[in-house]
Write a structure and sequence with these properties.
Length: 67
């Protein structure tokens, strides 16, 4: 009976270790997703700013000044 209990406890320990590893993996994945989301947001903002700057430059180049 004692051996069986010990085996069961070992299995429980292994399951707990696996649970902790998976929990850590999930946290890392969530952090990576959040980081990627911020990068994507920044890239989108930069792209929009570049487009606006290009449009402004084009408008300035096309402006005819009459004296």
């Amino acid at each position: 009976m004692k051996e069986r209990r010990t085996k069961f406890e070992k299995e429980l320990d292994q399951m707990e270790q696996r649970r902790v590893k998976l929990k850590n993996k999930v946290e890392q994945t969530e952090q990576r997703r959040a980081s990627n989301s911020n990068c994507n947001s920044n890239n989108s903002n930069n792209s929009n700013n570049n487009n606006n700057n290009n449009n402004n430059n084009n408008n300035n180049n096309n402006t005819v000044i009459y004296h």
